[in-house]
Amino acid sequence: MSHDRSTTAATPSLMEVHSTVRTAHTTFWRRLFAFAGPAYLVSVGYMDPGNWATDIGGGARFGYELLWVLVMANLMALLLQTLSARLGIVTGRDLAQACRDEYPAGISYALWFLCELAIVACDLAEVLGAAIGLQLLFHIPLLIGVLLTAADTLLILWFTRYGIRVIEAFVIVLISMIGGCFIFEIFLAKPGVGEVLGGLKPHLTKENLYLAVSILGATVMPHNLYLHSALVQTRHIGATAKEKRTACRFNLFDSMVALNAALVVNASILIMSAAIFFKRGIVVDEIQQAHALLSPLMGTALASVLFGAALLCSGQSSTLTGTMAGQIVMEGFLRFKMQPWLRRLVTRFLAITPAALTIYYAGEKGTYSLLILSQVVLSLQLPFAVIPLINLTSDRKRMGEFANKRIVQTLAWIIAIIILALNIWLAWTLIAPWIANSGDYKPLVVGALVLGLGGLAYILVVIICWPMFRRRAEHAGRVALAVSAIRPTPTVPPRYSTILVPLDHSDADSAALANAVTLAKSHDAEVILLHVEEGVASRMYGSLASTAEITEGQDYFEEIADGLLKEGVRAQIRVQYGSSPAREIARVANEVQPDLLIMGSHGHKGLKDLIFGTTINSVRHHVGIPILIVRGNEGRAGTR
Fold first, then answer.
1. pLDDT tens per residue, range 106-147
2. For 585-590, which contacts have Cβ atoms below 8 Å and span 24 or more sequence positions?
3. Using CB atoms within 10 A of its CB, is residue 511 exposed (0-12), middle (13-18) or buried (19+)?
4. Distance from C-alpha of 331 to C-alpha of 318, rounded to nearest angstrom
5. Does pTM surpass 0.70?
6. What are phi and psi of 598, to 5 degrees?
């Protein structure tokens, strides 16, 4: 197995806010405050509506028995999130980007697909939680509430305009409201201290396994590992080992505070459920039932109101971080950007569909089972995020002195083994009845299970053993420019003295440059490299803007210009600022009047134009010079 995908031209994670928070403060408390934030956004995923369903169900059915699972899951989460943050700080790459660089293309795409399933499962919990919160507070029918959650796309877009610190502040306010509500609920429930402490003793049976694994999946969420490795890069860290070590230390403190706060919330929900429902022998089949029973059992209507308000806050705060995780995973694994509103709409549609169908056909009681199932899906996906994270952060070539020490590796692998063992146990308890009750369809069911589980097992074996495979495989060099890949020779070439080449940090750049180099050498022409900065900072401040995205773009162009110089080609770099690349390209073309404009095409059309944009079509209608359109990396070109 080998691969040769370039890593030097990758765009930063969440590039609109990448490295935008200054951390070079002189006082300890100001630096601590500067680094605080990423873990709080991550902790939202540890107290989303899916956690509510598992915690309420666990407390109502088994009392305090599963409290130890929450504590164990929180300790697992603390170690794994610390590794995730360290990966982002040390390498400057999020987990999705690192996996794409590390694994063969087939394995990388499989990991992306599995992670997208986890994000949809998480979004499903957020949809149901927000809809139930609207129903409890405002008596909106559940099906209508589910459909209304599609409108939170506007909320996401509105908040992202104001930068990462505003998003963090908003989420912290929501977390504080959730925590305050449940501290008050615990005060009203008056649980027995001895019983609570007894719940910390490990106790796992066949009966409580399903809920135990769903609690694990709801607490240690796979997409949070991708999210954290990107969020830590919103801080301006620095390039030296000392600066990175300082960032790791502050982020560890941030994670400890935020994740322990999430543990308090989750434990409060389970303890409240055990103290109120389990002691009275009440089996809770839906969150709405818990809400309805709280007021009469606690003796105050305020208990139900606080419960509904906290649930609504939980759904909305999870929506923000879920959207970011989806953006990170898609851009990191696939290296293309989808417009935020469209990305959010697609993910939410995939979550709304099963929720709406369940409510329509199975009624509102079916939503509780769907919530639990969504958390089990998250747990089953965990190994496919945890194992790559352990391998990547243990790699001394990648991490240097920050690579996992032996004790950390041992603890991390123990966590991975526990997760795998629980998932295998759960899978068998679910699959055995399916096979037994399949009747005449048994061969088909068995065949499908063997095929599906065999594929997952193959992926697991590859990601576990990949470090050994990699040592035996010779990695190809990763360079941003491969000008020798394409050498087209025109039959009757015209004379060119100036060639304009717009670049967009994509795979199409190499193809456009290869053609430009060939023509420039033949005609002794000068190549003008053009890039349009579209970020928020660029649009607001133009040439005065300075973000990680712009800095990396400059480095990228300078590397290309140096490569062209070595090829004997004269080149100059030009950067424009604006929200419309097509408009800026046309403006420069009409100003410079080059003899030829070479543009790389991604090869999409129709619906994909809506997703990725139509720069070439817009440009060709506003310039009066020949255009050479190069198709991706495949070397197919055409003049217009």
1. 899 999 998 888 887 777 777 777 787 788 888 888 888 877
2. 585/502, 585/530, 585/532, 585/615, 585/619, 586/618, 586/619, 586/622, 586/623, 588/500, 588/528, 588/530, 589/500, 589/619, 589/623, 589/625, 590/622, 590/623, 590/624
3. buried
4. 20
5. no
6. -110, 125
Q: Where are the domains of the chain?
A: 24-422, 498-639
Surface-to-core class of residue 118, CB atoms within 10 Å of its CB (0-12 exposed, 13-18 middle, 19+ buried): buried
Phi, psi of 498 (to 5 degrees): -135, 130
State both tokens at 461.
């074996």
**What tokens does 29 get?**
């408390």
CA distance 609 to 442: 45
- The architecture of the domain spanning 24-422 is Up-down Bundle (1.20)
**CB-based contact 558:461 (threshold 8 Å):** no
pLDDT tens for each residue of 579-635 = 678 788 888 888 888 888 888 775 555 434 434 445 676 677 677 788 888 876 544
What is the mean predicted confidence (pLDDT) over 553-574?
82
State how beta strands 627-631 and 636-639 pair: antiparallel
Cα–Cα distance for residue pair 386/114, rounded to 1 Å: 13
E strands in 12-74: 21-22
pLDDT at 609: 44
Q: Which residues contact 41 (CB under 8 A, 6 or more apart)?
A: 167, 168, 171, 227, 231, 320, 321, 324
Q: What is the CATH number that goes with domain 498-639?
A: 3.40.50.620
Q: What is the pLDDT of residues 452-464, one digit of tens each?
A: 888 888 999 999 9
Which position has the higher pLDDT, 551 or 177? 177
The answer to whether the beta carbons of residues 402 and 410 sit under 8 Å apart is no
Query: How many helices (DSSP H) and strands (DSSP E) are in the chain?
Result: 27, 8
pLDDT of residue 404: 93
Query: Average pLDDT, whole number, for the chain?
Result: 77
| Residues paired with 596 in a beta bridge | 499
Q: Per-residue pLDDT averaged across 487-499, rounded?
A: 68
Indicate the helix (H) or strand (E) that contains 208: none
Grouping H, G, I as helix, E, B as strand and the rest as coil, residue 637 is: strand
Q: Structure tokens of 303?
A: 């208990």
Q: What gap in Å lies between CA 415 and CA 386, rounded to an integer? A: 9
Residue with tokens 């502050």: 250
Distance CA(271)–CA(278), nearest Å, equals 10
DSSP string of 241-252? HHHHHHHHHHHH
